[in-house]
Structure formats: C-alpha cells, structure tokens
Design brief:
The chain is an alpha+beta fold and 383 residues long. The chain is 66% helix and 10% strand. The chain is built from 16 helices and eight strands. It has a four-stranded antiparallel beta sheet with strand order 1-8-3-6. Strands 2-7-4-5 form a four-stranded antiparallel beta sheet, with no helix packed on it. The longest helix is centred in the middle third of the chain and has 45 residues. It is extended. The structure holds adenosine-3',5'-cyclic-monophosphate (CMP).
C-alpha cells in the first residue's frame, strides 16, 4: 500500500476505520473552530485584543484548509469514483467536483493572506464563513445521508409537496372570495391571500392577517388541520426514509466486516444476510476491558481486526482477527468465565444474547461450530 493510498484511506468520507474517523473528527472540529473565530471577529463590541486573537485563529484554520486542499488534490487519483487513466485527469475532475469547488473556496482566505495582509485574510474569511458551513456539510458524517434520504424519497416528497400546493392555493382562493371585499389589504387578491394561507397552513400563525367572517374562520380552522396533516405526512416520509437508509448503509458496512471473518465464509448468502442483520460493529481502543469476569453474558464478539487478551487464571491467551469470544456465558447461561482486554485497537462484530439464541434455532451449523470451539477451549483450560 503506497503512502498516497493510505492518506486517501484516512481522508475518504466513506472509510470507517478508527484513524479515518479521528481525522474526520479533527476536520469537523477545525471547521467549527474556524466558523466560531470568524463569527467572533464580526462582534464589534469585542475588545481589540480578542478580535486579533480570533483573526489569528481564523488565519491558522484557513492555512490548514489550504494544506488539506493540496493533500486532497494529491490523493484524488485514489478516489474510485475518479479512477481515470491519468492522475492529472482525476485531479482535474476532483477540482471541478462540488467537493473540490467548496474546498477551494474555503481556502481563498488563506490565499488572500499569502498575497495580501493578514487583515485581508480575516475579512475575506468572514465572507467565506458560508463556504465553511458548506464544507462542514460535506465532511460532517450524516449530511450525505440526509441528501440521500431526500433523493430516495423524492417521489413521496413530491406527492406531499403537491398536496401542500393544492391546499395552499385552494385556501388562498376561498379566503379571497370570503374576505377580499372587507379586507382589501390582506385578501384583496389571490397572491395577497397566499401569505395568510402559508402562515396558516404551516401552523405558524403570525396573526397579521386574520379572517373575520364566520365562514373565513371556519376555513382557517380547516386549513390549520390540513397543515398539521401535511406536516405529519412529511415527517413520516422522512423518518421512514431515514430509518431505511440507515439500515441499508449499516447492512453494507457490516456485510464488508463479516467478509473479513473467515468463520462466516462457509455460511450461504441467505443465511449471511440473516446474520448481518443481527450484528453490530463496535470499535475499542487498546487496553479496553471488553468482558469482565463474573459479569452476566449479554453478547458475544467476533474480532474483525486487532487482538484481545483472555486472562484465564495465571495464563493469558491471545485471540486475533477472525477469532471470537464471549460465547461460553451464552452457551452455558453462566457468568463470564474470564476477563477479556483489548491488546490493540480493535473492530468487532457484536451479537447480542437474544439474537444469539434466535440464530441458534435458525443456523444450527453455525452454533455447533461455536460450541465445538468452546468445548475445545474448556478442555484446554482444565488441562
Ligand atoms: P465468556 O465466558 O462468555 O467470557 C470470557 C470469554 O473468554 C469466554 O466466554 C471465552 O470466549 C473466552 N475464553 C475463555 N477461556 C478461553 C480459552 N482457553 N481460550 C480462548 N478463549 C477463552
């Protein structure tokens, strides 16, 4: 693996490794610090010293963004979406991509500082705070998810928007008929009534335009109820879309991790999808206690990467990627038999006790293999 591949792995928003997540956290923190310092710089009542510090921090953040931009440009040929024949063409495509443009705009304060005074940099930074917010959107985990949910649910959202428009225009038209004569200013035309219709339909209710006739008030009540229904419909569409997309992503992620555990390789595709649905991934730093001797057994673990140490009396048994542990308490329905501590940073797949017993009924071969290993371990322990 070349240095460029490794750095791309750290910067790729889709990589789930421990280091990549740390890099993303640092990046998001940096953006937040940048946005805060730029915002602080615009507060006129702040003492000059504090504003100078804010400008200095803004400058540092902008310079760091500049180096980040150069690094992303360098590693662009590693991006599978830009995998073109020549590295130059991949980089060119990245520069013209939405991410490339946002990242370039985000470094303009740094470039301004390089060519002009520090003051110029801080001032242009205040203009580019919007771009930094966008940058946050491209790097913060979950923002891509929102975009995806809107894309997936576009037809349902369009139907809800159409319903919204139908109620809106009907309400504005009827309000114009009912109130237009007496309240020229607010209901004199359909466009003028639209403001009341929007304010009422979204249940905001500023109260600047109010129907006065009894029929107008009945209409207002009906529009408010329609508004609540349409908003509930929108919330429902988005909530369902979110949960479906999160499940889909999690499935793909766990599927990839399961492929790294040879233990699962003999299970057929249908059974694997059943198992993948029940597994959750969890990362641990080195030195973390995963299992405490004597505790109740609530789950078992498959090591995807890293090493753990099992403390059996005086002996220490090392388990590595591909191994599993925590099965004995579940099989014997007894407390944990040993302490298990991570030797290195680990990524594990966790199967909770309820899913373990369900799986035992559905995948007897898999559980027999786990039982056989547990038996072997127990015999080894009693030797
Ligand atoms: P459990 O008893 O649930 O919790 C401690 C775990 O340590 C245990 O399950 C096994 O997975 C693991 N363990 C215990 N003894 C050994 C051993 N001799 N070799 C490997 N792993 C063990």
């Amino acid at each position: 693996m070349t240095l460029r591949t490794r750095i791309y792995g750290l910067l790729d928003p889709e990589s789930h490794g421990h280091a990549a997540r740390q890099v993303r956290t640092v990046e998001v923190m940096l953006i937040l610090v940048g946005i805060s310092s730029v915002s602080a710089g615009t507060v006129a009542s702040l003492p000059p010293g504090a504003r100078a510090v804010a400008a200095f921090i803004t400058g540092i953040v902008a310079v760091l963004f500049f180096f980040e931009y150069l690094t992303r440009l360098w590693v662009a040929p590693e991006n599978p979406h830009l995998h073109l024949v020549s590295a130059g063409r991949s980089r060119f495509k990245w520069v013209l991509s939405a991410e490339g443009i946002i990242d370039l705009l985000a470094v303009i304060p740094a470039l301004a500082m390089a060519y002009g005074s520090a003051r110029l940099g801080a001032e242009s930074a205040s203009m580019f705070v919007l771009v930094w917010v966008l940058k946050l959107a491209t790097h913060a985990p979950g923002v891509g998810l929102i975009a995806r949910v809107f894309h997936n649910e576009r037809s349902a959202l369009a139907a809800a928007a159409a319903l919204f428009a139908i109620v809106l225009f009907s309400a504005a038209t009827i309000a114009h008929w009912l109130e237009g004569e007496h309240q020229q200013e607010h209901f004199g035309s359909i466009p003028a009534s639209l403001w009341w219709a929007v304010v009422t339909l979204t249940t905001t209710g500023y109260g600047d335009a109010v129907p006065l006739s009894p029929a107008g008030r009945v209409l207002g009540g009906v529009v408010m109820l329609c508004g609540i229904s349409v908003l509930a419909l929108l919330a429902g569409i988005l909530a369902t879309g979110f949960s479906a997309e999160v499940r889909r992503r999690e499935f793909v992620r766990i599927w990839e991790l399961v492929a790294q555990v040879p233990f699962f390789s003999e299970v057929g595709a249908i059974a694997i999808s059943d198992i993948v649905d029940r597994l959750r991934s969890r990362s641990y730093p080195a030195g973390a206690t995963v299992i405490k001797k004597g505790a109740a057994g609530d789950s078992m673990f498959f090591i995807v990467s890293g090493e753990v140490e099992v403390f059996i009396g005086e002996r220490v048994k090392k388990l590595v990627d591909g191994d599993f542990f925590g099965e004995m308490a579940l099989l014997d329905r007894k407390p944990r038999s040993a302490d298990v501590v991570t030797g290195t940073a680990c990524t594990m797949l966790v199967l909770n006790v309820a899913d373990f017993y369900q799986l035992a009924g559905q995948q007897p071969k898999l559980i027999s293999a786990i039982e056989a290993e547990a038996k072997r371990r127990r015999e080894g322990d009693t030797e």
